[in-house]
Amino acid sequence: MRAIRGRAAYYGQRSRARKPKENGDVKSPLRKARAAFAAERVSGIGDGGVGVVDGRGELAGGEGVEGAETGVEFGGDGIAFLGVSGGHDHLGAVLRQAIDAVRHEAGDPPEMFQWLAAACADATILADEPRLHELTRRMEAAAREQGAMVPLSLALSYAGARGLLAGDLPEAERCFTEITAIAEARGQPWGVGSLILSAWRGQSDRAYALLDVVADEADRQGQGYQLVFADYARCVLELGHGHYDAAYASCRVDDTSQIKFVLPDLVEAAQRSGHPDAADGMVRLLAGLATGQPGPVTLGFLARAQALVAGDGTEAEDHYREAINQHGHAPAHLARSHLVYGEWLRRVKRPRDARASLRTALRLFDEIGAQGFARRARLELAAAGETVAAQPSAGPARDLTPQEAQVARLAAAGATNAEIAAQLYLSPNTVDYHLRKVFRKLDVTSRRQLARAQLDLVP
């Protein structure tokens, strides 16, 4: 069975980690918490219950593990995932107990990779950005220290998802770019990161081509989770172009989904494509998330969604302002909230206020490279009565700063970040920052692509 519940499948990455010791401190609370949850949903996979996949992306068997009869299983070379479903408010608390069992365990890194990945999966399902941030940083640091490439790739995939959840596109780009490089080096192409970045950049031709590539890779590698993120990318791409019907049709999310950050996008798409009942249902789902994890990310998502379904009354404006306030430190989310607020202000005949919010949205979109949404903001600004300069054409000679050009030229020649840092008297972190900007500006995702670009990078 290659994917669990179609496009809502969850992914178990094959790990080199040893099976946790039978008497390990972390094993008992984590497994008991998961088994307690599983007992709530004995109806199984077919009824929207627990989904567990092993390292091959197949349905895991029990092998006598506690809770195995309901689908909970921790294989020796696989990572178990447990979906949240059933609508019971206390289930989120049960999974947080499981996550905290891992957070508070200072175990041996090879043994802990399995548990960290399982905890990351559940934190992603819960849209628990603070816990996910902590767990991904810990797993990434441990994997780098151990030189473990497979756990590193998995840590980066969750860190990238956390970047999307937190509205931190540069962080998502950092993670997806490195995963792509690791995958290329291992001869296992991984196009989903490039697809997501292309969608945010509004690169339609490239993104549509990558959708086919990712579908082929997911089928060949038996990794159904890629299709879920491909659907998310399609939704982002269509929304950037204002294609609300296509965006609404592109993606579905339920309690078990690891892409809860798409919910406000789907509310926007549903409301603007004539599906208000669906929009209201997703607002209720966001309300449940915000109740369980009342942080700036979820509260901002909820406020934006409530504004989108509130119509033209003063209540809508209060929600828009709340979304902007909550997402003040999340550039991508802040830009999106300013965009829909500006569109609303123009619709209620307040063009001056609309222009102010839309200018902010456009500036933020340009800063993070979200050119699809930037084009939408430009169109709205023009409709609000502002003369808007045409979007500048891309070109490396214009876009790269002198230092970025130096870094790009050395990286294209095969120098490592450490070698570039030593040659240019920069820190490795600064080199990494410049390279991420170079990759975005030149529309490449790896050093190999940078070397093939054959561009004049001389400052």
Number of beta-strand segments? 0
Tell me which oligomeric state these chains represent. single chain
Number of helices: 22
Which CATH architecture of the largest domain is right?
A: Alpha Horseshoe
CATH class of the largest domain reads: Mainly Alpha
> What global shape is seen?
globular
- Which parts are unreliable, with pLDDT below 50 for 5 consecutive residues or more? 1-26, 36-88, 454-459
Helix-residue proportion: 55-70%
In whole angstroms, how far apart are the ends? 53 Å
Q: How large, in whole angstroms, is the Cα Rg?
A: 22 Å
Query: Largest beta sheet, briefly?
Result: none
Mean pLDDT: 77
Estimated structural class? mainly alpha
Domains, number: 3
What is the string of helix and strand elements? HHHHHHHHHHHHHHHHHHHHHH
Task: Using the coordinates shown, work out and report the CATH topology of the largest domain.
Answer: Serine Threonine Protein Phosphatase 5, Tetratricopeptide repeat
Classify the beta-strand content into a percent band.
under 5%
